[in-house]
Each structure stands twice: as structure tokens, then as C-alpha cells.
Amino acid sequence: MKTDGLIQKAKVVLQMTQPCTIASSPAHPLFFSRSAILRPPFDSLRSIATMSNDKDPHLDAIFQQKRTLRSKVRKELKGMNPTQRSQEDNAIQSIILEAPWFNSSKRLCAYISCAALREVDTSRILSEILCNPAEGGHTQIRKTLYVPRVEDRNSHMRMLNISSIDDLIANSMNILEPAPVDCDGNQCKDVMQASEPVDLFLLPGLAFDRSGRRMGRGGGYYDTFLKKYQELVMERKWKQPLLVALSYSLQIMDEGIISVTPNDVPVDALVSPAGVIAISPAAMERCG
């Protein structure tokens, strides 16, 4: 169908650079700076229909709605009181760190938050995993952690395993991400080649609703990656991972506000300062 063809061809990249620093604190010696990394989003791919003779009016309308909503949410996030943002960051991370579904997860993928993009902070979560891999704090079992690495301008992203802060480097655009090889010179493990499935994804985004719709920043990185990973899980007959998005209060929209395309991957649950919103049956079972 014409629509499927357009969606398949639709590619766009969101490139944002931000200085990357790693700070220390008494509570978290491997604390990640909130200005750490480009957060390539994973909502629908922007249509190239507007640059093509093969336009689809329905898709054009959806992508225009997304652009308008993105602009609105970015403005609201920019105007968010820093004290409120910090309080919500702490509340969200505390909920996750104390959650049984987080503590029981052995293998997970998580984003490294970027202050410039006003994403929900993940520094405490990542620090707990890397600083206390076996015991102590809220981490009850040893966890395997994968974080994103952008490969090109065509929505291609990998999730690579890190076990130490030293496995992260700043690339040519000064963006912090996992190196292809770790600090010992070994090739970093790609989650797509792992012999065991991921239990949990912690995901960023610009807007969400209570039915699981998620809108990212337009690059299509996460949607593309998640579809490929879900297909791999089906081929290997593994259990699908739980997709959990982190959201400030103002990012949760009313039903019907977020438009979707077949490329958009819904989330299983949201974590906001008010608590966990379980959406899918899998989330209701694990997070309810």
C-alpha cells in the first residue's frame, strides 16, 4: 500500500549536541551529569511525503499534528520550574529504584538523560546499577545494563553493554555514549547478539497518554530499534521486555491528543511523580 511505502521510507534525524561531563557526589561516586548525551527519540519517523510527489494527506496531517504538539511540549518543559523538575526527577527515580519489577530485572536497557532536552533524570538509577552491581542500595541482584549508541543519520541505533563509567566516551560531537570497545579493550556486547533477553526498557519521550501512546522527538531511533528487538524476541520465543517510559507530570496528555502511525511502538507503563501507570496486561501483572 502507498501508506506503508511512505512510512517505510520515512527517515529523519534529530542531531543535538551538548557538552558531556561526569560529576561525582558523596552519595553517588559515579553520578552521571544530566547534560550527558544526545537522546535520540523513538516516536514515529517523520514523513518525507512533504518532499515527494507521492504525498499521503492522512500521513501529512498526522506528522503536522506531531510537530505542533512537540513544539507545545518543548515550550512547557522549557518553562518548567527547576525546583519542580528536580523534585519530580527524584520522585520518579525513587519509585523505580524501590519497585519490585525493577529490582527483579536482570537485564535492562536505559537511556542516559540529557538536561538540554529536559528529559527525566536517570543518573541515580544508572549510578545504583554501576556502583552497586551485586549488593547494597536498592539493587538486589546483579544487573546487565545496555545504553544507546547512535550509529548514523538513518535511525540506526545500537544498545551496548557497559559495566563501568569508563566504558562511556564523548564522540566527535562531544556526546557521551558507550564506546565500541570497553576499557579492557574487549568488544562491547550488543544486545541484539545477547544470548538472553532483556527484561526491562527505561525509555524517554516528549509526550505520553494513559493508553500507552508515546511521542518522541521525530528521529525514529527508538521505534526502529524496538521493532527489530521485538521481532528478535519473537523469533527466539523469549518473553517480551517490559517497556516503561519516564514522564514529568506535564508530559501526560489527554486521550486522543497524540496521533500515531503503524511505526509507533506503545509503552507498557508510565512512571510519573504520582506513581506507576500500568497500561498493558503485562504491566498490570508485573507492576500492578
Name the descriptors:
single chain; 288 residues; alpha/beta; Rossmann fold; seven-stranded mixed sheet; 7 helices; disordered N terminus
Report what the structure shows.
The protein is an alpha/beta fold. The protein has a domain at 70-132 and 142-207 and 224-287: 3-Layer(aba) Sandwich (Rossmann fold), CATH 3.40.50.10420. Helices cover 29% and strands 16% of the residues. It has 7 helices and 12 strands. A 7-stranded mixed beta sheet has the order 3-2-1-6-9-11-12. A 3-stranded mixed beta sheet has the order 8-7-10, with helices on one face. Strands 4-5 form a two-stranded antiparallel ribbon. The protein is globular, with a radius of gyration of 18 Å. GO terms for molecular function: 5-formyltetrahydrofolate cyclo-ligase activity; ATP binding; metal ion binding. Its cofactor is Mg(2+). Pfam families: 5-FTHF_cyc-lig. It catalyses: (6S)-5-formyl-5,6,7,8-tetrahydrofolate + ATP = (6R)-5,10-methenyltetrahydrofolate + ADP + phosphate. Keywords: ATP-binding, Magnesium, Metal-binding, Nucleotide-binding.
Give the topology:
Elements: H1 2-9, H2 57-78, H3 82-98, H4 100-103, E1 107-110, H5 123-131, E2 144-150, E3 157-162, E4 168-170, E5 176-178, E6 200-203, E7 207-209, E8 214-215, H6 221-236, E9 242-246, E10 252-253, E11 269-272, E12 275-278, H7 281-287
Parallel strand pairs: 1-2, 1-6, 6-9, 7-10, 9-11
Antiparallel strand pairs: 2-3, 4-5, 7-8, 11-12
EC number: 6.3.3.2
Family: Belongs to the 5-formyltetrahydrofolate cyclo-ligase family.
Protein name: 5-formyltetrahydrofolate cyclo-ligase
